[in-house]
Amino acid sequence: MFRVIAYLRASEISVKMYQNSIVWITGASSGIGAETAIQMNAAGAFVILSARNKEALQKVQNQLKFKAQSAIICLDLEKSEGFAEIAREIQVTYGRIDYLINNGGLSQRGEAADTSMEVNRRIMEINYFGNIALTKAVLPVMHSQKSGHIVVIASIAGKFGFFLRSAYSASKHALQGYYESLLLEEEKNNIFVTLVYPGKINTEISKSALNASGNAHGVMDHNQETGMPVSVCVRKMLKAVSKKKKAVLIGKKEILAVHIKRFWPWLFWKIIRKQKAV
What's the chain look like in SS3? Predict the structure, then answer.
């Protein structure tokens, strides 16, 4: 009963906040990005779906409640040269960009000693440089309309390092530093930033994660299989965004590690070294 009431309240907030808004979502072909598109579209938003794989984006588009209130723009976060032009085209076509959901990214499954510099650079290029390049392309649009909200899907790995995720964790730590600075700078322009830190979420992110040699991990990790349902994760995220929260931790008991590290670091290191890497 209480869960139903909580869900209805979250839905009411979403409808009120997102109806008729223009939302650009990266990494929209699967996982958190796809579910965000589905939920925001159901709340009345016009969603622009971006990722590299057009066919996968079309499959997500076919699941939307209001398919006519959507568009597909293929985008590769490793190729940022054309981002500003795409942002201008969206502004001309749709009039504005109310929300940028910076979700696109790549995970990692490889020990630091074995991971090539090419893999380190690729992860940083996609997760950090591509991410902030898109934000910088969208900021002039938000400045011109004197409003906007940038949502950044970081990770609990952006709060502490973990086995097999050195470059991934570094990229998420970098996002935290960048966007905490940006939210302070853009407050005067009526532009908000929300940093989202998901823990173990039931998506296929581990399958596409890069191993030490740069190949796809190709395995659905236990941590993902047993994680929070992605639909629940996105509902919590959209509720936090609607309240203009600066940051939100989302997950099960694993998010307690963030608080343990802050207040009892000695206990954190004792616990974390015993956790399963996959």
Answer: CHHHHHHHHHHHHHHHHHCCCEEEEECCCCHHHHHHHHHHHHCCCEEEEECCCHHHHHHHHCCCCCCCCEEECCCCCCCCCCHHHHHHHHHHHHCCCCEEEECCCCCEEECCCCCCHHHHHHHHHHHHHHHHHHHHHHHHHHHHHCCEEEEEECCHHHCCCCCCEHHHHHHHHHHHHHHHHHHHHHHHHCEEEEEEEECCEECCHHHHCEECCCCECCCCCHHHHCCEEHHHHHHHHHHHHHCCCCEEEECCHHHHHHHHHHHCHHHHHHHHCCCCCC
Question: 172 is written with which tokens?
Answer: 């998420």
pTM value?
0.92
pLDDT digits (tens, 9 = 90+) for 81-114: 999 999 999 999 999 999 999 999 999 999 999 9
User: CA–CA separation, 157 vs 107, rounded Å?
Assistant: 10
Helix 265-272 with 256-263: angle, nearest 10 deg? 130
Residue from 18, 99, 168, 179 carrying the catalytic annotation: 168
Is 168 annotated as catalytic?
yes
Question: Interhelix angle for 166-186 vs 131-145, to 10°?
Answer: 10
CATH of 2-272, one of 3.40.1080.10, 3.40.50.800, 3.40.50.1970, 3.40.50.720: 3.40.50.720
Tokens representing residue 36 in the block:
């965000």
The domain spans of the chain are 2-272
Question: Mean pLDDT score of the chain, rounded to an integer?
Answer: 93
